[in-house]
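Usage

Read records sequentially. Each one opens with the input sequence:
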Amino acid sequence: MNILTPTFFSLKKNRKTIIYIVSLSLILALFCSLYNFKSLINNIFESNIKNNIKNRCIYVTSVNELDIESIKNVENIKNAYYFIDICNASIEDEEIKIKTGDIEQIPNVIYGNDLSFEGSTDILEIIIPESIQKKFSESLINKNVIINVNHKENIEALIVGIYNGDKYDNTIYVSLSNINKIIELNPKILNKYSGFVIADSYDNINKIIEKLMEYGYNCNLFDTSGEKDIYSYENISKFLSIFIFLMIICVYVIIRITIKNFIDDEEKELAIMKAIGYNNITILKTIILRTLTISIIAFLISYMLVKIINVGIMNLFNNYIYNKDVPLSIVGYLIAMLMIIVISVICSIREKRKIKKINIIELLKNT
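and closes with the structure output:
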Protein backbone atom coordinates (compact mmCIF):
# COMPACT_ATOMS: atom_id res chain seq x y z
CA MET A 1 0.00 0.00 0.00
CA ASN A 2 1.09 3.59 -0.65
CA ILE A 3 2.10 5.14 2.67
CA LEU A 4 2.99 8.57 1.23
CA THR A 5 -0.62 9.75 0.88
CA PRO A 6 -1.66 9.29 4.53
CA THR A 7 1.73 10.54 5.69
CA PHE A 8 1.69 13.90 3.93
CA PHE A 9 -2.06 14.41 4.23
CA SER A 10 -1.81 14.17 8.02
CA LEU A 11 1.17 16.55 8.04
CA LYS A 12 -0.81 19.13 6.09
CA LYS A 13 -3.90 18.65 8.23
CA ASN A 14 -2.20 18.86 11.64
CA ARG A 15 -1.77 22.53 12.60
CA LYS A 16 0.80 21.65 15.26
CA THR A 17 3.24 20.61 12.52
CA ILE A 18 4.48 24.19 12.12
CA ILE A 19 5.13 24.47 15.87
CA TYR A 20 7.12 21.22 15.82
CA ILE A 21 9.19 22.37 12.82
CA VAL A 22 9.96 25.81 14.28
CA SER A 23 10.90 24.38 17.70
CA LEU A 24 13.15 21.72 16.21
CA SER A 25 14.72 24.23 13.78
CA LEU A 26 15.77 26.54 16.59
CA ILE A 27 17.25 23.73 18.68
CA LEU A 28 19.14 22.25 15.70
CA ALA A 29 20.47 25.68 14.70
CA LEU A 30 21.69 26.26 18.24
CA PHE A 31 23.27 22.80 18.31
CA CYS A 32 25.16 23.39 15.02
CA SER A 33 26.30 26.87 16.09
CA LEU A 34 27.57 25.63 19.45
CA TYR A 35 29.34 22.67 17.82
CA ASN A 36 31.01 24.94 15.25
CA PHE A 37 31.96 27.44 17.93
CA LYS A 38 33.43 24.70 20.12
CA SER A 39 35.56 23.59 17.15
CA LEU A 40 36.84 27.16 16.80
CA ILE A 41 37.56 27.39 20.54
CA ASN A 42 39.45 24.08 20.48
CA ASN A 43 41.54 25.18 17.48
CA ILE A 44 42.46 28.49 19.12
CA PHE A 45 43.13 26.76 22.43
CA GLU A 46 45.41 24.10 20.95
CA SER A 47 47.42 26.33 18.60
CA ASN A 48 47.47 29.82 20.13
CA ILE A 49 47.10 29.12 23.85
CA LYS A 50 47.77 25.61 25.06
CA ASN A 51 50.70 24.84 22.76
CA ASN A 52 52.04 28.36 22.45
CA ILE A 53 55.76 28.12 23.10
CA LYS A 54 55.59 30.50 26.08
CA ASN A 55 53.35 27.94 27.81
CA ARG A 56 55.72 25.07 26.94
CA CYS A 57 58.91 26.75 28.14
CA ILE A 58 60.48 25.53 31.41
CA TYR A 59 63.21 27.47 33.20
CA VAL A 60 65.83 25.09 34.62
CA THR A 61 68.58 25.93 37.14
CA SER A 62 71.23 23.95 39.00
CA VAL A 63 74.15 24.46 41.41
CA ASN A 64 76.30 22.67 38.82
CA GLU A 65 76.55 23.20 35.10
CA LEU A 66 73.55 21.88 33.18
CA ASP A 67 74.13 18.83 31.04
CA ILE A 68 72.19 20.15 28.06
CA GLU A 69 72.79 17.12 25.86
CA SER A 70 71.40 14.75 28.53
CA ILE A 71 68.41 17.04 29.06
CA LYS A 72 67.66 17.00 25.33
CA ASN A 73 67.40 13.21 25.49
CA VAL A 74 64.63 13.30 28.11
CA GLU A 75 61.33 12.07 26.68
CA ASN A 76 58.90 14.74 25.40
CA ILE A 77 61.54 17.49 25.31
CA LYS A 78 61.64 19.23 21.94
CA ASN A 79 64.68 21.42 22.61
CA ALA A 80 66.95 22.62 25.41
CA TYR A 81 69.62 25.33 25.57
CA TYR A 82 71.61 27.38 28.06
CA PHE A 83 70.34 30.72 29.27
CA ILE A 84 71.79 33.42 27.03
CA ASP A 85 71.36 36.98 28.25
CA ILE A 86 70.54 39.94 26.03
CA CYS A 87 73.68 41.40 24.51
CA ASN A 88 74.01 45.16 23.94
CA ALA A 89 75.47 46.20 20.61
CA SER A 90 75.19 48.79 17.83
CA ILE A 91 74.77 48.92 14.05
CA GLU A 92 75.74 52.13 12.25
CA ASP A 93 75.74 53.92 15.64
CA GLU A 94 72.19 52.62 16.19
CA GLU A 95 71.89 51.05 19.66
CA ILE A 96 70.49 47.51 19.48
CA LYS A 97 69.95 44.41 21.60
CA ILE A 98 70.83 40.92 20.44
CA LYS A 99 68.53 38.04 21.43
CA THR A 100 68.24 34.37 20.54
CA GLY A 101 65.93 31.47 21.27
CA ASP A 102 64.22 28.41 19.91
CA ILE A 103 62.92 28.64 16.35
CA GLU A 104 59.36 29.20 17.65
CA GLN A 105 60.57 32.11 19.82
CA ILE A 106 61.99 34.02 16.87
CA PRO A 107 59.53 36.49 15.25
CA ASN A 108 58.21 35.65 11.78
CA VAL A 109 59.77 37.80 9.07
CA ILE A 110 57.59 39.96 6.83
CA TYR A 111 60.36 40.65 4.28
CA GLY A 112 63.29 38.44 3.30
CA ASN A 113 64.05 35.02 4.78
CA ASP A 114 63.90 33.33 8.17
CA LEU A 115 67.02 32.51 10.15
CA SER A 116 68.74 29.20 9.51
CA PHE A 117 68.65 26.77 12.46
CA GLU A 118 70.44 23.97 10.59
CA GLY A 119 73.97 24.48 11.92
CA SER A 120 76.25 27.50 12.03
CA THR A 121 76.63 29.61 8.88
CA ASP A 122 79.90 31.15 7.66
CA ILE A 123 78.65 34.64 8.39
CA LEU A 124 76.40 35.72 11.26
CA GLU A 125 72.81 35.86 9.97
CA ILE A 126 70.42 38.29 11.68
CA ILE A 127 66.87 39.54 11.34
CA ILE A 128 66.05 43.13 12.28
CA PRO A 129 62.84 44.97 13.22
CA GLU A 130 61.01 47.10 10.69
CA SER A 131 61.72 50.15 12.90
CA ILE A 132 65.45 49.93 12.06
CA GLN A 133 64.79 49.43 8.34
CA LYS A 134 62.67 52.62 8.26
CA LYS A 135 65.70 54.66 9.30
CA PHE A 136 67.44 53.76 6.04
CA SER A 137 66.38 54.81 2.57
CA GLU A 138 67.44 51.57 0.87
CA SER A 139 66.50 48.00 1.70
CA LEU A 140 68.83 46.31 4.20
CA ILE A 141 67.89 42.77 3.20
CA ASN A 142 70.96 40.76 2.08
CA LYS A 143 73.18 43.64 3.18
CA ASN A 144 76.34 43.07 5.21
CA VAL A 145 76.65 45.24 8.31
CA ILE A 146 79.18 45.59 11.11
CA ILE A 147 77.87 44.94 14.60
CA ASN A 148 79.81 46.47 17.46
CA VAL A 149 79.40 44.22 20.52
CA ASN A 150 79.57 46.00 23.89
CA HIS A 151 81.42 48.88 22.18
CA LYS A 152 84.51 46.68 22.04
CA GLU A 153 84.51 44.02 19.34
CA ASN A 154 83.20 44.14 15.79
CA ILE A 155 81.61 41.29 13.86
CA GLU A 156 80.27 41.18 10.32
CA ALA A 157 76.63 40.11 9.94
CA LEU A 158 74.21 39.50 7.07
CA ILE A 159 70.66 40.84 7.34
CA VAL A 160 68.47 38.06 5.94
CA GLY A 161 65.04 39.29 7.02
CA ILE A 162 62.89 41.96 8.63
CA TYR A 163 60.20 41.29 11.24
CA ASN A 164 57.27 43.46 12.30
CA GLY A 165 58.11 44.81 15.77
CA ASP A 166 56.70 47.92 17.42
CA LYS A 167 58.04 51.33 16.40
CA TYR A 168 60.46 51.48 19.33
CA ASP A 169 61.79 47.93 18.92
CA ASN A 170 65.57 47.77 18.58
CA THR A 171 66.07 44.02 19.03
CA ILE A 172 67.81 41.90 16.43
CA TYR A 173 67.60 38.10 16.51
CA VAL A 174 70.26 35.47 15.95
CA SER A 175 69.61 31.73 15.72
CA LEU A 176 70.84 29.39 18.48
CA SER A 177 73.17 27.76 15.98
CA ASN A 178 74.89 31.10 15.33
CA ILE A 179 74.84 32.72 18.77
CA ASN A 180 78.28 31.26 19.59
CA LYS A 181 79.78 33.94 17.35
CA ILE A 182 78.38 36.57 19.76
CA ILE A 183 79.27 34.54 22.88
CA GLU A 184 82.92 34.45 21.75
CA LEU A 185 82.95 38.24 21.82
CA ASN A 186 80.96 38.54 25.06
CA PRO A 187 81.23 35.31 27.12
CA LYS A 188 79.34 36.86 30.06
CA ILE A 189 75.98 36.48 28.32
CA LEU A 190 76.22 32.67 28.55
CA ASN A 191 75.04 31.11 31.82
CA LYS A 192 75.63 27.35 31.95
CA TYR A 193 73.95 27.03 35.35
CA SER A 194 70.51 27.83 33.96
CA GLY A 195 68.67 27.17 30.77
CA PHE A 196 65.40 26.67 28.96
CA VAL A 197 63.59 23.47 28.07
CA ILE A 198 60.89 23.43 25.39
CA ALA A 199 58.25 20.72 25.86
CA ASP A 200 56.71 19.09 22.79
CA SER A 201 53.25 19.64 24.28
CA TYR A 202 51.72 21.54 27.20
CA ASP A 203 50.18 18.27 28.42
CA ASN A 204 53.69 16.89 29.06
CA ILE A 205 54.94 19.84 31.14
CA ASN A 206 54.43 18.22 34.55
CA LYS A 207 55.92 14.92 33.42
CA ILE A 208 59.06 16.70 32.16
CA ILE A 209 59.42 18.77 35.34
CA GLU A 210 59.15 15.64 37.52
CA LYS A 211 61.81 13.90 35.42
CA LEU A 212 64.23 16.83 35.53
CA MET A 213 63.77 17.23 39.29
CA GLU A 214 64.77 13.56 39.65
CA TYR A 215 68.08 14.60 38.06
CA GLY A 216 68.50 17.30 40.72
CA TYR A 217 67.46 20.30 38.64
CA ASN A 218 65.21 23.13 39.84
CA CYS A 219 62.35 23.66 37.39
CA ASN A 220 59.60 26.22 36.96
CA LEU A 221 57.24 27.18 34.17
CA PHE A 222 58.97 30.20 32.64
CA ASP A 223 55.81 32.19 31.86
CA THR A 224 52.75 31.57 34.06
CA SER A 225 50.59 34.26 32.44
CA GLY A 226 49.11 31.72 30.01
CA GLU A 227 47.69 29.53 32.80
CA LYS A 228 44.78 31.93 33.29
CA ASP A 229 43.94 31.77 29.57
CA ILE A 230 44.19 27.97 29.61
CA TYR A 231 41.87 27.81 32.62
CA SER A 232 39.35 30.14 30.91
CA TYR A 233 39.35 28.20 27.64
CA GLU A 234 38.98 24.85 29.42
CA ASN A 235 35.95 26.18 31.33
CA ILE A 236 34.38 27.58 28.15
CA SER A 237 34.92 24.24 26.39
CA LYS A 238 33.28 22.35 29.28
CA PHE A 239 30.37 24.80 29.29
CA LEU A 240 29.86 24.33 25.54
CA SER A 241 30.02 20.52 25.86
CA ILE A 242 27.31 20.59 28.55
CA PHE A 243 25.17 22.93 26.45
CA ILE A 244 25.58 20.74 23.35
CA PHE A 245 24.50 17.70 25.37
CA LEU A 246 21.43 19.62 26.58
CA MET A 247 20.59 20.46 22.95
CA ILE A 248 20.68 16.74 22.11
CA ILE A 249 18.30 16.06 25.01
CA CYS A 250 16.01 18.85 23.73
CA VAL A 251 16.00 17.36 20.22
CA TYR A 252 15.05 13.98 21.67
CA VAL A 253 12.26 15.48 23.80
CA ILE A 254 10.81 17.51 20.91
CA ILE A 255 10.81 14.55 18.52
CA ARG A 256 9.33 12.26 21.19
CA ILE A 257 6.56 14.76 21.98
CA THR A 258 5.90 15.25 18.25
CA ILE A 259 5.39 11.54 17.67
CA LYS A 260 3.31 11.07 20.83
CA ASN A 261 1.02 13.97 19.91
CA PHE A 262 0.63 12.72 16.37
CA ILE A 263 -0.60 9.35 17.62
CA ASP A 264 -2.86 10.91 20.29
CA ASP A 265 -4.33 13.54 17.93
CA GLU A 266 -4.88 11.12 15.05
CA GLU A 267 -5.88 7.96 16.90
CA LYS A 268 -9.13 7.75 14.94
CA GLU A 269 -7.34 8.19 11.60
CA LEU A 270 -4.90 5.43 12.57
CA ALA A 271 -7.85 3.20 13.51
CA ILE A 272 -9.38 3.83 10.06
CA MET A 273 -6.04 2.91 8.45
CA LYS A 274 -6.09 -0.34 10.39
CA ALA A 275 -9.70 -0.95 9.36
CA ILE A 276 -8.98 -0.58 5.64
CA GLY A 277 -6.05 -2.99 5.76
CA TYR A 278 -2.91 -1.16 6.94
CA ASN A 279 -0.96 -3.37 9.36
CA ASN A 280 0.99 -2.12 12.40
CA ILE A 281 4.33 -2.13 10.55
CA THR A 282 2.94 -0.02 7.71
CA ILE A 283 1.40 2.47 10.15
CA LEU A 284 4.74 2.62 11.99
CA LYS A 285 6.44 3.40 8.68
CA THR A 286 4.07 6.34 8.13
CA ILE A 287 4.94 7.65 11.62
CA ILE A 288 8.69 7.31 10.90
CA LEU A 289 8.35 8.96 7.48
CA ARG A 290 6.26 11.79 8.95
CA THR A 291 8.81 12.41 11.72
CA LEU A 292 11.74 12.29 9.30
CA THR A 293 9.99 14.78 7.01
CA ILE A 294 9.49 17.24 9.87
CA SER A 295 13.10 16.70 11.03
CA ILE A 296 14.61 17.26 7.58
CA ILE A 297 12.53 20.42 6.99
CA ALA A 298 13.61 21.67 10.43
CA PHE A 299 17.24 20.83 9.58
CA LEU A 300 17.12 22.85 6.34
CA ILE A 301 15.61 25.84 8.15
CA SER A 302 18.21 25.53 10.94
CA TYR A 303 20.97 25.70 8.32
CA MET A 304 19.77 29.21 7.43
CA LEU A 305 19.42 30.22 11.09
CA VAL A 306 22.96 29.23 12.06
CA LYS A 307 24.60 32.44 10.82
CA ILE A 308 22.17 34.58 12.84
CA ILE A 309 22.86 32.58 16.02
CA ASN A 310 26.63 32.74 15.32
CA VAL A 311 26.50 36.54 15.60
CA GLY A 312 25.01 36.30 19.08
CA ILE A 313 27.60 33.73 20.18
CA MET A 314 30.42 35.90 18.80
CA ASN A 315 29.20 38.89 20.80
CA LEU A 316 28.96 36.77 23.96
CA PHE A 317 32.50 35.37 23.73
CA ASN A 318 34.23 38.13 21.77
CA ASN A 319 36.94 38.62 24.42
CA TYR A 320 38.10 35.03 24.05
CA ILE A 321 38.12 34.50 20.29
CA TYR A 322 39.98 37.61 19.07
CA ASN A 323 37.35 38.60 16.49
CA LYS A 324 37.60 35.35 14.52
CA ASP A 325 34.64 34.04 12.53
CA VAL A 326 32.83 30.89 13.65
CA PRO A 327 33.54 28.28 10.95
CA LEU A 328 30.57 26.59 9.27
CA SER A 329 31.89 23.07 9.84
CA ILE A 330 30.29 20.43 7.64
CA VAL A 331 30.98 17.93 10.44
CA GLY A 332 28.55 19.71 12.75
CA TYR A 333 25.77 19.54 10.16
CA LEU A 334 26.43 15.88 9.39
CA ILE A 335 26.28 15.04 13.10
CA ALA A 336 23.03 17.00 13.45
CA MET A 337 21.53 15.25 10.40
CA LEU A 338 22.54 11.80 11.61
CA MET A 339 21.30 12.62 15.11
CA ILE A 340 17.76 13.58 14.03
CA ILE A 341 17.46 10.53 11.75
CA VAL A 342 18.52 8.14 14.53
CA ILE A 343 16.37 9.83 17.18
CA SER A 344 13.35 9.94 14.82
CA VAL A 345 13.58 6.23 14.06
CA ILE A 346 14.18 5.23 17.71
CA CYS A 347 11.32 7.37 19.05
CA SER A 348 8.96 6.08 16.37
CA ILE A 349 9.78 2.44 17.11
CA ARG A 350 9.22 3.07 20.83
CA GLU A 351 5.60 4.01 20.02
CA LYS A 352 4.99 0.68 18.28
CA ARG A 353 3.26 -0.74 21.36
CA LYS A 354 0.89 2.23 21.43
CA ILE A 355 -0.05 1.61 17.81
CA LYS A 356 -0.78 -2.04 18.58
CA LYS A 357 -3.14 -1.03 21.40
CA ILE A 358 -5.36 1.06 19.14
CA ASN A 359 -8.86 -0.46 19.44
CA ILE A 360 -10.53 -0.15 16.04
CA ILE A 361 -14.04 -1.06 17.23
CA GLU A 362 -14.07 1.30 20.23
CA LEU A 363 -12.67 4.27 18.29
CA LEU A 364 -14.92 3.83 15.26
CA LYS A 365 -17.95 3.32 17.52
CA ASN A 366 -17.33 6.79 19.01
CA THR A 367 -16.86 8.45 15.65
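Summary fields computed downstream for this record:
- The first strand starts at residue 57 and ends at 61.
- The chain has a mean pLDDT of 81.
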